[in-house]
Structure formats: structure tokens, C-alpha cells
Design goal:
four-stranded mixed sheet; binds coenzyme A; five-stranded mixed sheet; 10 helices; Peroxisomal Thiolase, Chain A, domain 1; 2 domains
Length: 323
């Protein structure tokens, strides 16, 4: 059975650190409030002129180096982002050009904070169907550009960054012992589209707009939807929560991660947490967290890794991967 195996991982964070105390200089907030409600202590902010493409290329280069291959070996780029450099073309094509890759296909996927799980699921399906041999799956965001910096209820939550993985087609046995993507599940429910959205766009206002959110509603739905899609994905593979070595969640809020883990019966020690230093980097947060846990030696070859996310739309999903 053809499987899409993760052969390399990399990430990139902009140099500028914005702490909670820095934020308290220009909005009515405090380090204490932000840490208590979200677990966030600091986030990174892209420099002037540093775009989503730049972040994505840096993460992609690191993932390619980790896989020990060049961009010429890649025949698919799927980039998850809600903060593209331009309305079109897809930022993935700019990444493709920067990497010097001239064959294959490159496109963006837009599922906000669920973007990386969506992109991984799409790339996995294409690799398994024979449509690609090696794919770069990237999550990259510059959310600092769509925040209303006078709105303390949203501007304290988000940050910029990028992460990428290299997927490679390999033959597996068709069992859950195989390396690679074992199962993915995607969901959306557009009835909730006004609970987390950006109030601008090319066809509506001809502006970029700013992020708007009903925080409590998002929180409530996130815990329910994430726990349920984690269960569905494991059931698809015939596995249970006890089989999971690591949960790598979308890093939105420590309280959401704690509540979900509790509801799902996974100990906190198995949950990779980076929201304290990254904030919510939307589609970039899962590959950023994965990279931290792989580089510090927690996630090892053969481990069963469950990724999950929920975002605007609402969209939500999970992916089960044997590392
Ligand atoms: N600093 C200080 N006070 C703040 C604040 C900030 N940054 N943001 C909001 N407040 C205030 C509110 O104005 C409110 O004050 P009031 O009681 O005088 O009206 C008070 O804190 C409580 O606000 P509330 O919205 O009820 O807080 P909360 O406990 O729901 O926490 C969130 C707010 C945003 C942290 C929480 O709802 C949340 O995490 N939601 C999910 C958000 C998310 O993860 N989104 C992305 C998903 S991909």
C-alpha cells in the first residue's frame, strides 16, 4: 500500500519577539491576564517587508535539508495560509519560484487555523493516488498584518511563523505499523462563519480587513469538535487514545488544549505545547510545534502522532501519522 511518509521537517520564526508586557504598552491588558486566559507569554512578529512567502521558503528549505533532498526532487507544494502575499497568485507559486522548482504543481489551501491538517490531508491523498512522489506541505502565516492592534480581545492571541514537512511516497504493508499518514478527517460547518472571520476581502470590501472573533463561542465549539474529530480519526485506523504517543494540537490557547486533552483522556505530558512562545500562528502552529518536539527528541521514528485543529469557518480536522 502506498503511503505518504514524513521524511523531513523544518520551521522558521521571525526574529522580533513581542512579549505580553510589550503589548501592555499600547493596549489595556496585562501579562497576568494573557497568561491566565491563554497560556501565551510571547509571539513573533514578521519584520517590515518580510512576507508569508519569505517565512514559508525558510521553513521549506529547513525541511528539505532535514530530508536530505533538493527542491528539484519535489513535485507538489501545498501551502496552508490565510495571509497570502497577494490575493493571487497563490503564495505557493511564489515559494515554488524562490525554491527554483519548475515542475509539478503548487497551490494554496485556505482553512484558517485548520489549514495545515487540510493541506496534509490533500497532499496525502495526492501522493497515495500517484499524483505526486514528493510533496512539501507548508503552513505559513503573517497574522500580525490582519490584526486590529487596538482590539485587546484579539491582538494578544496571534503571532507569525512557518513550518513545513516533506512527504515522500513509500510502500507500506497497509497496517497501522506503517510509517506515514495513517488517517485524516476533515470537517467544516459554514453556519458558524461569522464567529471567527476577517471583515474584508477582494470581492466584498476591496480591502484586506481585520480579524474579528466571538472568543467564547469559538472556545466552546473548539473543545467539542476537536475531541470528536480526534476520536473519529483514531477509529478510522482502528486505534484508541492509549495508542497515541504524542498529540500535536493547533496552538490556539492552553485552556483549549487542556480541556480537549482531559475530555479525550490523554495525559498533559503527551501534549506538545508551544503556544506560550509562539502564540496562535494559525496554519503554521502544528508544523512549528512538531519541529520543536522532533528537534528536542520527544517525537521519534515509529511514534504515533495525532495532530488536530479547529479554525474559522468553522473548519476542523485531525491527522494520524506514524513518524
Ligand atoms: N486583557 C485584559 N482584559 C481583556 C482582554 C485582554 N487582552 N481581552 C478581553 N478582556 C476582558 C474583556 O473585555 C472582559 O471584560 P469585562 O468583563 O469587563 O467585559 C473580560 O476580560 C472577560 O472577557 P471574556 O471574553 O469573557 O474572556 P474569556 O475568558 O472568554 O477569554 C479569550 C477570552 C479570547 C481568551 C477566550 O474566549 C478564548 O480563548 N477563546 C478562543 C479563542 C481562540 O482560540 N481563537 C482562535 C481559534 S483558532
Amino acid at each position: 500500500m502506498r503511503r505518504a511518509v514524513i521524511q523531513g521537517i523544518g520551521s522558521y520564526l521571525p526574529a522580533k519577539v513581542l512579549t505580553n508586557n510589550d503589548l501592555a504598552q499600547f493596549v489595556d491588558t496585562s501579562d497576568e491576564w494573557i497568561v491566565e486566559r491563554t497560556g501565551i507569554r510571547e509571539r513573533r512578529i514578521a519584520a517590515d517587508g518580510e512576507t508569508t512567502c519569505h517565512l514559508a521558503v525558510a521553513a521549506a528549505r529547513a525541511a528539505l535539508a532535514d530530508a536530505g533532498i533538493g527542491a528539484d526532487a519535489i513535485d507538489l507544494i501545498v501551502l496552508a495560509t490565510s495571509t497570502p502575499d497577494n490575493t493571487f497568485p497563490a503564495t505557493a507559486t511564489s515559494v515554488q519560484a524562490e525554491l527554483g522548482m519548475t515542475r509539478g504543481a503548487a497551490f494554496d489551501v485556505q482553512a484558517v487555523c485548520s489549514g495545515f491538517v487540510y493541506a496534509l490531508s490533500v497532499a496525502d491523498a495526492m501522493v497515495r493516488a500517484g499524483g505526486a512522489e514528493r510533496a512539501l506541505v507548508i503552513g505559513a502565516e503573517t497574522f500580525s498584518r490582519i490584526l486590529d492592534w487596538s482590539d485587546r480581545t484579539t491582538c494578544v492571541l496571534f503571532g507569525d511563523g512557518a513550518g513545513a514537512v516533506v512527504l515522500e511516497a513509500q510502500e507500506g504493508q497497509g497496517s497501522v505499523a506503517d510509517r506515514g499518514v495513517l488517517a485524516t478527517r476533515l470537517h467544516s460547518d459554514g453556519r458558524h462563519k461569522d464567529k471567527l472571520y476577517v471583515d474584508g476581502g477582494p470581492s466584498s470590501t476591496q480591502t484586506v480587513g481585520h480579524l474579528r472573533m466571538e472568543g467564547k463561542e469559538v472556545f466552546k465549539h473548539a473543545v467539542i469538535n476537536i475531541a470528536s474529530v480526534m476520536g473519529e480519526t483514531l477509529a478510522d485506523a482502528g486505534l484508541t487514545a492509549e495508542d497515541v504517543d504524542w498529540v500535536v494540537p493547533h496552538q490556539a490557547n492552553k485552556r483549549i488544549l487542556d480541556s480537549t486533552a482531559k475530555r479525550f483522556g490523554i495525559p498533559e505530558s503527551k501534549v506538545v505545547l508551544t503556544v506560550d512562545v509562539h502564540g496562535n500562528t494559525s496554519a503554521a502552529s502544528i508544523p512549528l510545534a512538531l519541529d520543536v518536539a522532533v528537534k528536542d527528541g520527544r517525537i521519534r521514528r515509529g511514534d504515533l502522532v495525532l495532530m488536530e485543529a479547529m479554525g474559522g469557518g468553522f473548519t476542523w480536522g485531525a491527522a494520524l501519522v506514524r513518524w
